[in-house]
Amino acid sequence: MTTSEPSSGPVGNKVPRTERGRQTLRKLLDAAAIEFGEKGFHEASIIGITGRAKTALGTFYTYFDSKDEIFRALVTDLSDRVRSTVGAALTGRADGGALETEREALAAFLRFAGEHKEIYRIIDEAEFVDPASYRSHYESTARRIFERLQAGGRSGELRTDLQEAHAWAIMGMNVFLGLRYSIWSEELPADQVAEVARSILKDGITRPSS
Amino acid sequence: MTTSEPSSGPVGNKVPRTERGRQTLRKLLDAAAIEFGEKGFHEASIIGITGRAKTALGTFYTYFDSKDEIFRALVTDLSDRVRSTVGAALTGRADGGALETEREALAAFLRFAGEHKEIYRIIDEAEFVDPASYRSHYESTARRIFERLQAGGRSGELRTDLQEAHAWAIMGMNVFLGLRYSIWSEELPADQVAEVARSILKDGITRPSS
């Protein structure tokens, strides 16, 4: 998984047109992730971000008008990177079916969260600082899961009566397994955690009838 | 479900010894839930809380030393009320088995969240204002779910290899189904949402083999 490539799509008001500009924007966003992740939105400062990014203050304002704006751009950037990281993990594999897809999507997310622990704090703080981005992150994530569930229904592997609520249930499992096993402790490896979720989606939690 | 009874256990430093004192404490906590829920921690004020509770400022300081302290007490109070509300819903029913218990626990939680929509914002803000309470809320909730899963294993209904991670997965499903269907919209009734979760726990999401 590469974490140094620029986020897809424009962030902030001013989209860089050169490779050098894209690198500077990336440095600012990476620095903002550390600054907001460590200090929280209210204590974080633009000076703190440019200090970490080793850029001039004027450079910051080439890309963003305010602390609010880079925070909003960062939430979009993290949301995009979760999507592209999970997407890359799924396209890189032979098609093992719908359940295997969900298992692999969760494992990729858990690894990403473990390597970018600040993501929880930043997305969670968006509920207060930028509610529209918070909602959009979860709505778009649930939509992608639901599309995969519908594909699994069409292929015959999954039930055909799965609803949007099933996607929200799966997303919730994933988010809380990440909180517990990627952020708060890493006592279980990502693959083992993802296997727990897969086993629930495969057979539920009831004892198999013999 | 009664919401006017005092929370179990002491909240704040000063536990009221009289019924009148308990009622005043309850009024302050209910007012705090509205104040913090509407304004968020930073914008909320002690004056705003006592104004809503129609109590004197001096009365506030009989029970709490600061805004931080009543916020912490409120998180504990909400966590306790979720527990007692779910507990009451479970004891009030004939034992329909482990899956029915999880379904009913979720339905009771969804109804509580729908009637106290501020709970999400307050518990979520605890991640920033009072991280220990935030963590304790989820750890104790997961522990209760895990104990129910173990009881279901002993009774023969559930798999006996269920781990703590299964409880976190179930809690995550419940939290996100609540966010989507009790807070953001109520387009699906609580019973129907709880049935989605029950069906996942019963058979997973795969197509039944015919």
Automatic annotation (TrEMBL), chains A, B:
Gene Ontology MF terms: DNA-binding transcription factor activity; transcription cis-regulatory region binding
One Pfam family linked to the record: TetR_N
Coiled coil: none
Keyword Repeat belongs to the record: no
DNA-binding region: 45-64
Record has Transcription regulation as a keyword: yes
Record's keyword terms, sorted: DNA-binding, Transcription, Transcription regulation
Domain HTH tetR-type: 22-82
Superkingdom, natural source: Bacteria
Protein name (database record): HTH-type transcriptional repressor KstR2
Taxonomic source organism: Edaphosphingomonas haloaromaticamans
Gene: kstR2_2
